[in-house]
Amino acid sequence: MARIDVIMPQMGESIAEGTLSRWLKKVGDAVKRDEPIFEISTDKVDAEIPAPNAGVLSEILVTEGQTVPVQTIVARIETEVGAAIPASAPAAVGAGGVSAPASSTVASGPGAGAPPEKKNTAAAAPSQHQRAAPPPAASRSPNGNTFEDRVRTRSSPLVRKMAAEHNIDVSGLQGSGIAGRVTKRDLLSAIESGGTGTRAPGRPGAVPSMHAPGGADSHGPAPEPWPGDVVEPMSVMRQRIADHMVVSRRTSAHVTSFMEIDFTRIARIRSTHRARFEAETGQKLTYMPFIIRSVVDGLKAFPVMNAAVSGTNVILRKQYNIGVAVALDWGLIVPVIKRAEDLSVSGITRVLNDLAARARAKKLAPAEVQDGTFTVTNPGVFGSLMGTPIISQPQVAILGVGTIEKRPKVITGPDGEDTIAIRTCAYFSISFDHRIIDGAVADQFLAFVKQTLESFSEAV
Questions:
Q1: C-alpha–C-alpha distance, residues 196 and 206, integer Å
Q2: Poorest-confidence range of 154-163, 331-340, 429-438?
Q3: Closest CA to 357 of 386, 379, 328
């Protein structure tokens, strides 16, 4: 009888941990090779993780809601389907309420350190904010760093960027993440305190939230539920979104401009080619590929809109990787169309539809939500006229698309007389980082996108 370990995968080079958000199988279930058995959430993506082998799920060592380092054993699979399956509980919870590491030394089954009648109590699921203990430190690398050193200094690019902007040495901070990894919350706490030194162990910084960016203490006590209220914990994805939005508002000097764009020509082109396009490609032809194509042309004309800020330097990106916000039933994700400058409207349509479908099915790879240089969000699909979207760091601008609808407009004819006509229109907004983008440049960019859309060629 052979047992196969199921590990927490590394979903990206800068990702050191993941949260097991949901088990899709339970102990005793038969599983097929490559069949999804659990879901994880990281800083970058939600994903379903497949079984490494066929067999029976014999042990679950990490419960839903736990955050563990990559390479942690989260479950075991018996490769002989007909074998008896031991009634094993999740990893035991040790003193202090932190679950024991899921490794080959974890005891399971009867006589594993707690009498059978006490195992249900010991296996109580930890709260969403409890983290599994880190694995033993790895051997020293050639440069002399321990596992903890390497993980801490490999904080996310956003953390390193913020630290550089505030002249904070990441290696000098006491991190609260796995193996001392410095998280965004640790860095925000250091920025709030105005210091650059190491925070005292055992004294975590105030946790930022959507309502209290500097932590609960900066705006008084946290609100308490009243009788009849319903209290629901944030999902892991919602916590990530909240953190990213707060960090972005604190990092960039947000300004938003608006313009109304006439889509009548695009609507006519779409109507003319729609049936043929969908018959030939099997893809739905929407307005978004036309918008993305025009945005890429605008970014080429105004390079600072496709930039990033690094301390006192401005990085002008030469790749045009367009993130497109996709609303999910459980949150929001932004897959990225890589090198959109090389794609036609037809090519953008194929890639966009594929990314959106896989985002909703939790099939995106981490690389497909990374390295965006500019983002487009489309709240207009829900009927919103306009909005002021928050920039996705480390980008410097984001385009908001309002609902596209028919409106009465005043049109000046060839003879100079004004008439009222029905036109297909939408409001566009551009939120930009005023640290490096002036209002004139942002407005010129948006005017360029407007002119491009209103005079779009027939090629699809």
A1: 16
A2: 154-163
A3: 328
Distance CA 62, CA 174 (A): 26
Non-local CB neighbours of 32 within 8 Å, separated by 6+ positions: 51, 54
Q: What residues act catalytically?
A: 434, 438
Closest Cα to residue 67, out of 17, 138, 25, 118?
17
Q: Which residues pair with 414 in a beta bridge?
A: none
The neighbouring-strand residues paired with 376 are 324, 399
Structure tokens belonging to residue 403: 């609902």
Query: What domains are defined for the chain?
Result: 3-122 (2.40.50.100), 137-218+235-251 (no CATH), 253-454 (3.30.559.10)
Report percent pLDDT > 90 for the chain: 42
Among 87-101, 155-169, 284-298, the range of highest mean pLDDT = 284-298
Cα→Cα distances 431→230, 258, 422, Å: 35, 9, 29
Strands (DSSP E) contained in 42-87 are 46-50, 55-60, 67-69, 73-78
What 8-state DSSP symbol labels residue 76? E
CA angle 446, 452, 458 (to 5 degrees): 155
pTM comes to 0.62
In one-letter notation, the amino acid at residue 398 is: I
C-alpha 323/C-alpha 8 separation (Å) is: 27
Interval 335-347: pLDDT, tens: 999 999 999 999 9
* CA dist., res. 160 & res. 166, Å (int): 10
